[in-house]
Amino acid sequence: MPTPHSPGRLVVVQSAKRKRCSVCRGGPLSLLVLEDGAPRCLDCADLGHLVFLPRGDTALTRRSREESALSAVVVRFNRRRSRYERQGVLVEEEALSRAEARCLVDAEARRRRRARDARRRAVEDERFVAAFAAEILRLFPDCPAERARAVAAHASVRGSGRVGRSAAGRALTEGAVISAVVAAVRHVDTPYDQLLMSGMPRYEARRRIAPAVEAVLRAWQGAGAEVG
């Protein structure tokens, strides 16, 4: 951590005391430079033309110092921790403007990359939903196509933790696909949700609506088919 006497760099102190410049007697000073133990204002220390950039944006700080022929680290003494802590930097105003422009260019590039990634993920998701729906229709050929797509879309939402996002779901395993269909039928085609809201234990609610779920699955599978 820089101190007022750090070698190899200019350090400016953010002072809470009402000190005055030992040369011009200006003050009280919010920012000062210690030279031979005496406080100097920024003008008397030939730093008055610099502007303050608070800490927080690492990229902007680094680029501002790269662009600035003259810069200084601003520190403040933390009495509780008994040490000087960095508050920001002083840099040339034009250097700060150039650094901000560079960061804006990078921000725009990141925005365009995020947009490209979002479009790519949307295409991937659309293809996966279509493949998931096709697998539902293979296993349940009498399931309405729009219902199969709705089940597939719901099961495969990114970040949802649903079966379509699991490893088995991404692999379109039969068990994962059937689990997604069963869950959809349970919530949409039976009074399962109402039973839960009435206070019925989950295992009892599932037992109660199991025949209704089985009837829908058999109807979607076609005559003579069995649910896996």
Describe this structure as you would to a colleague:
- There is one protein chain.
- The two termini are 66 Å apart.
- Strands 3-2-1-5-6-4 form a six-stranded mixed sheet.
- The mean pLDDT is 89.
- It has helices spanning 58-67, 93-139, 145-155, 167-170, 174-188, 192-197, 202-221, and strands at residues 11-14, 31-35, 38-40, 50-54, 72-78, 83-92.
- The relative contact order is 0.08.
- The longest helix is centred in the middle third of the chain and has 47 residues, at 93-139.
- The protein is elongated and about 95 Å long.
- Helices cover 50% and strands 15% of the residues.
- Helix 1 runs antiparallel to helix 2 and helix 2 crosses helix 3 (145-155).
- It has two domains: 11-102, no CATH class; 140-221, no CATH class.
- A hairpin with a 2-residue loop joins strand 2 and strand 3.
- It is an alpha+beta fold and 228 residues long.
- Residues 136-221 form the DUF2293 domain.
- Pfam families: DUF2293.
- InterPro entries: DUF2293 (IPR018744).
